[in-house]
Write a structure and sequence with these properties.
single chain, alpha+beta, DNA-binding, nucleus, WRKY_dom
DNA sequence: TGCATTTGACCCTT
DNA sequence: AAGGGTCAAATGCA
């Protein structure tokens, strides 16, 4: 056998991460339960956390779990890359490595195996500093797509990027696709202080899709996995409350015009489904039941479903990743 | 003056 | 070949 890359340590790492994910999901479920109780009995619950705090906890748990999943998948991709490179002792050519050296301009550096996930949000804000490096008009799309890289690309070598585009179906919303995970300091989890202080921004985004394996940007309709996503302001620190619109100086005046008057909305939580369920079309009954629930029941269901999935189907084992075509 | 954004060119992927 | 992603010079702003 060729698999000599310390399988035992890999298993223990995966198991550890699995436990971390479970822990986060359970925490989130507990917070959602408390939230439900709080909303059913708004009086006489002195001493318990506020709705906002509980909701923030729920969102934080989702975000933490997603973050752990990301890092696990990244580890796996890196591991597989190592395995692939070991065939004859020489590294596998990196995309673009042996291609034109002509100045390097426009060189396509996008990582094919980079983790991607998309959120729909009212704001572009998150807890990272981004720098815009491009904007393109996209075919059949009314709105241009903006390209951002992590501000710490050069000082810390962080390779995270994101693409922001106004949602075609709902111009009040922004579709943000994150590609790659931050390796710089100052992750959202590292600075929780903003969570309690800003109660509207995190309310306004939720995860549309999460992709372990390739960098395809999912369609808006593909709500296979949905959950709230934490967003914290830091991106363009401005004092003006309209900074989201005015201070970004996007060249297309239509891009942000509708965002000036956006109303915070209560996120609709969609069922959490793992990718393995994508082809399952027998969800009609479950979906009907689900759609009749309150948002808070849905939230709880999400955590329960996520917990079950992680407990039974998703152990970060080899087989899960072997199903994916990795280069 | 230094940093961020804009924008057209270049190059990669499909 | 078309569309999309990235680069870097030009430009704007504090």
């Amino acid at each position: 056998m060729n698999n000599t890359l310390c399988p035992e340590s890999e298993i223990s790492i995966s198991a550890k991460k699995n436990r971390m994910i479970m822990k986060e999901l359970v925490k989130g479920q507990e917070s959602a339960t408390q939230l439900k109780v709080l909303l059913e009995k708004p009086f006489g619950s002195e001493g318990s956390l506020s709705c906002q705090e509980l909701t923030a906890n729920v969102l934080r748990s989702f975000t933490q779990a997603i973050s752990i999943i990301n890092s696990s998948s990244a580890d796996e991709v890196a591991h597989r890359s190592l395995l692939n490179s070991g065939q004859n002792g020489s590294p596998v050519a990196v995309s673009g490595e042996n291609r034109s050296q002509k100045g390097g301009r426009g060189r396509y550096n996008r990582r094919k195996n980079a983790l991607t996930w998309t959120i729909l949000s009212c704001t572009t804000d998150d807890n990272h500093a981004w720098r815009k490096y491009g904007q393109k008009r996209i075919l059949n799309s009314e709105f241009p797509r903006s390209y951002f890289r992590c501000s710490h690309k050069y000082d810390q070598g962080c390779r995270a990027i994101k693409q922001v585009q106004v949602d075609q179906e709902n111009p009040n919303m922004l579709q943000t696709t994150y590609i790659g995970i931050h390796t710089c300091n100052g992750t959202p989890m590292a600075t929780h202080s903003a969570i309690g202080s800003s109660s509207t921004e995190w309310e306004s985004s939720y995860l549309l899709n999460f992709d372990h394996h390739d960098s395809k940007v999912p369609n808006v309709q593909d709500h296979h996995i949905s959950s709230p996503n934490l967003t914290i302001k830091q991106e363009f620190p401005k004092e003006d409350t309209h900074s989201d619109v005015a201070d970004h100086k996007y060249s297309d005046p239509n891009l942000w015009s509708d965002l000036k008057d956006f109303q915070p909305f209560k996120p609709t939580i969609m069922p959490f489904r793992m990718e393995s369920d994508n082809n399952n079309n027998n969800n009609t009954n479950a979906d009907n039941v689900y759609s009749s629930c309150t948002d808070y029941q849905r939230l709880n269901m999400n955590f329960e479903m996520a917990s079950v999935h992680f407990d039974t189907d998703f152990h970060f084992d080899e087989s899960h990743f072997d199903e994916s075509p990795l280069l």
